[in-house]
Design a protein that fits this description.
With 565 residues, the chain is an alpha/beta fold. The chain is built from 19 helices and 20 strands. The protein has a six-stranded mixed beta sheet with strand order 3-7-8-14-16-15. α11 packs across α12. The longest helix is centred in the N-terminal third of the chain and has 42 residues. It is globular, with a radius of gyration of 26 Å.
């Protein structure tokens, strides 16, 4: 990253040091001492905050009046059925009574509310997710396409009623990138909300990037949208950078792992493009941020930069909103971002882009940031990174303590940085070059604790298998390919597969200049598409197969990507 022209301000009270080695050594020693004291101060401040929180809890325990002031009264209607849990799942059964005719009449009057057609489709999506091998024909049918379009329309209506920044109360489970990974999403469903979200205490917050890179994008979207329809107050979905058309429609780069490609491959070009657009219409309405317990800010990428506008004839600059959260709340309920709709002004695009694309600055980038603590991101395409100064300002201005974000792959599932104030959570362990022992993580915010939950690399799932699994040995090659395209079969790319792919591109065992020119042309096309999508073609998390596939596509005629709105 090229450093900004402006220099970081020096601490007050520092005089000039005469030139020479002695002065330089003295300055270096003093700077190290300052940094050491600052680190110690951060540690002690964190300890004081923890003790202060403990004192608050004890005081609340002594005062029933304090507790009553933070507990809201809610209406809890009686239900007429109970949930019977067995080895094969759960079923609704009639609630037992103790011989009271009046009680029986009340339960009969309560009854079960009738379900809408879309809710019935959502229930079917949940059954499909619980055992996808029994729904292979349905998942490849036009019926699935029609059902998903109807669900997207209903989800769009629900999302449009929500603010752009949500305010939630713990307990809340927070999840990072999913990226079409059915296997890891199954792990969370089997362990976090094993009896169902409606029978699990707390709420569930997903931070975006549901599609691309994995082979089960349609299944993951259908499942999460189905949950949102059935339990709209239990699950919340935020927007990531892959919930934009320029990214999830980038076929040349992601190839068969592109969301648009999977829609067209599954349903045909015309129906597939319509399903893709219907999903993106819902994505356009996803909230961008959430705040838990008025203390923890949750976002896909990072918090936005302050918006400043010229507010006087003298050219003085004033901030447009009182805080970054107010800037998010001021965004329209429907925005496309990439590409933008006509009603999206420059400040709206900047706020939204910062929310879905930003990253924390690395330690070696801190000195090159501007006076607000922001700088250019290594991702390119206008993305920014935020440093310690920006974090300090944001947390202080909004009276917050922590930031939970996603957007960056980590082999440990959850990573902590920036003075233990920024959590990065990644909820897929595949397709990001993190190795076979990578973990998928989530975070539980509950009362006074922030706890990390990770999937062990040894955990065995039920429905996604390796190509060499004994359970698949009786399948035909056609059945195997069907399951692979649905993400139900996972395999490692063998050397012969790589060689065949390279041969298709025309790079293997060639040394003439024509091949070099073709490779250069492919790189140029890739870079141009990358600029359109707002990131560099050489993302750190791109896999080798994606790079080779990209070259293969670049050597052919670029397929048309529809432009909507």
């Amino acid at each position: 990253m090229a450093p900004r022209s402006g220099k970081k301000p020096q601490p007050a009270g520092k005089g000039k040091v005469a030139s020479g080695s002695t002065g330089d050594e003295s300055k270096s020693s003093e700077q190290k001492q300052i940094e050491q004291l600052q680190r110690e101060l951060q540690i002690k401040t964190a300890a004081l905050n923890a003790l202060s929180a403990k004192v608050d809890r004890l005081e609340d325990g002594q005062s029933g009046e304090n507790i009553a002031s933070v507990v809201r009264r809610r209406h809890h209607p009686v239900v007429s059925t109970s949930n019977l849990i067995g080895d094969k799942g759960r079923q609704k059964v009639k609630m037992g009574t103790r011989g009271s005719i009046t009680t029986q009449h009340i339960l009969e009057a309560a009854g079960e509310p009738s379900k809408t057609p879309v809710q019935l489709i959502a229930e079917r999506f949940l059954k499909m997710f619980s055992d996808p091998t029994n729904y292979i024909s349905y998942l490849q049918s036009k019926s699935f396409a029609q059902d998903l379009s109807l669900v997207c329309q209903e989800v769009s209506n629900i999302l449009e009623q929500q603010p752009r920044c949500l305010f939630l109360q713990s307990p809340v489970y927070v999840f990072g990138d999913i990226h079409g990974n059915l296997e890891d999403l199954h792990f969370f469903a089997d362990n976090i909300w094993k009896m169902g979200m409606d029978l699990t205490a707390g709420k569930f917050l997903f931070l975006g990037d549901y599609v691309d890179r994995g082979m089960s994008c349609l299944e993951c979207v259908a499942y999460l949208f189905g949950l949102k329809i059935l339990f709209p107050h239990k699950i919340d979905l935020l927007r990531g950078n892959h919930e934009t058309r320029d990214v999830n429609g980038w076929e040349m780069h992601y190839m068969e792992k592109s969301f648009l490609h999977q829609c067209k491959e599954r349903f045909g070009v015309d129906v597939g493009e319509q399903v893709w657009e219907d999903c993106n219409q819902a994505f356009d309405r996803l909230p961008l941020a959430a705040v838990i317990d008025h203390e923890i800010f949750c976002i896909h990428g990072g918090f936005p930069r302050p918006i400043r506008i010229e507010d006087s004839p003298e050219g003085e600059m004033q901030t447009l909103h009182k805080s970054e959260i107010e800037s998010i709340l001021a965004l329209p309920k429907v925005i496309s971002i990439m590409p933008a709709y006509d009603h999206e002004s420059d400040w709206m695009k900047q706020v939204a882009t910062d929310c879905i694309w930003s990253d924390p600055a690395s330690e070696d980038m801190e000195n090159g940031l501007d006076e607000d603590g922001f700088g250019d991101s290594p991702r390119g395409g206008g993305a920014v990174c935020f440093g310690g100064q920006a974090i300090d300002n944001f947390l202080a201005a909004n009276n917050l303590s922590y930031i939970i974000r996603a957007h960056e792959a980590h082999a440990y599932g959850v990573a902590l940085s920036k003075g233990a104030r920024v959590f990065t959570v990644f909820s897929t362990s595949k397709d990001h070059r993190q190795g076979e022992r990578a973990m998928a993580g989530c975070i539980l915010v509950d009362n006074d604790k922030i706890q990390v939950i990770n999937r062990s690399p040894q955990y065995k799932n039920k429905y996604v298998h390796r190509r060499t699994s004994v359970s698949l040995e009786n399948l035909s090659s056609t059945q195997m390919e069907e399951r692979r395209k649905l993400g139900l079969v996972r395999f490692s790319l063998a050397m012969d597969d790589m060689r065949r792919l390279v041969d298709q591109v025309g790079f293997a065992e060639h040394e003439d200049s024509d091949v070099d020119e073709e490779a250069d042309s492919a790189r140029q096309k890739s870079a141009a598409s990358a600029r359109r999508a707002g990131l560099k073609a050489t993302n750190a998390d791109d896999s080798l197969i994606e790079d080779l596939s990209e070259m293969s596509m670049s050597s052919q005629t670029e397929t048309h990507r529809p432009s909507f709105g």
